[in-house]
Amino acid sequence: MLKYEDLKKRMYYNEKYIVPKLKAVEQDKLAFNIENCSKTSCIATCSGCGAKYYAGSSYCKSRYCAVCAKLRALAWLCKLVPLLEQYSSNGYKLFMLNFTIKDHEDLDYILNKLMKSWRIMTHDDKRSKKEFRRLNDGGIKSLEIKIGENSGIWHPHIHSIVLLKTDEKVYQYNDYRKLWEYCSALAYGTTDKVGSVDIRGLKGYKGDIVSAVVETFKYMTKLDWLNIPDEQLRELFKVTNNRRFISSWGVLYRVNQQVEALLNETSEDKLKNMACKVCGCTEFELENHLTKMLSADILDLK
Fold first, then answer.
1. What is the arithmetic mean of pLDDT over 148-164?
2. Percentage of the chain with pLDDT > 70?
3. Which of 112, 113, 153, 249 could form a disulfide with 105 if both were Cys (CB 3.0 to 4.6 A apart)?
4. DSSP letter, residue 124
5. What confidence score (pLDDT) does residue 5 get?
6. How many other CB atoms are found less than 10 A from the CB of residue 266?
7. What gap in Å lies between CA 193 and CA 180, rounded to an integer?
8. Does residue 190 sit in helix, strand or coil?
9. Cα separation of 58 and 71, whole Å?
10. Please, which contacts does 121-126 make with residues 24 or more away whose CB atoms are closer than 8 Å?
């Protein structure tokens, strides 16, 4: 849950920067939803002593919203970090694994090639699928789309965290490199090298896992798209509409659905197992208030 001061700062950022940028590229409906995100908050009042708690707000859930991006990133940390710690303690080795292909000026074209390369590696090509499953027992991936720093054109890539249960030391870079180079070349219909891989082992302690989760899902809180020229930004909205950015497989299958369940919790759900920090009462009355009208005596309900 966001601290109230952080919530207000992100609401301000939405109004000051994000909404005007969206309106400039004719994304009026999205701008309206983000402009009104979090402006109605649910306040729980303790029936015993009258203490007031912030029990959540109505959110737009857009990946372009500063408030919702932060909430989603926090939900991933909350769900994934303890889960990965548990797998690490049970004998799984953890890796950060990134897949890239050559930058291209046509976003739809390069995005389709990137995802086709992934499907060949994980589903469509039997030999590649078998090799991919040999290299890991599961994982989770996120898609990040940005403008290449040197090229000035589209640079989509895949961030992932993968797990492998083994007691042996493993050196997988060359195996993943050969596999991805083969699958990406197959997707392009060429013998040239069009894909590259980066892999890093995680030590398994909490700080390392937290850093990996933040890196993998950093696109949620990054607002680099605000600096994209308007014409390319229009292309981004058009091409990415209704696309899934996150998926999981193997031992982490459906963990993304569990995160969505966290984000969809209602204020009533949050109150089921809560007690007042002041008097211990478990009975609350719920009311909706405009967020900007909330007073300083509202406490976070955690």
1. 95
2. 94
3. 153
4. I
5. 79
6. 11
7. 10
8. coil
9. 12
10. 121/179, 121/180, 121/183, 122/249, 125/183, 125/186
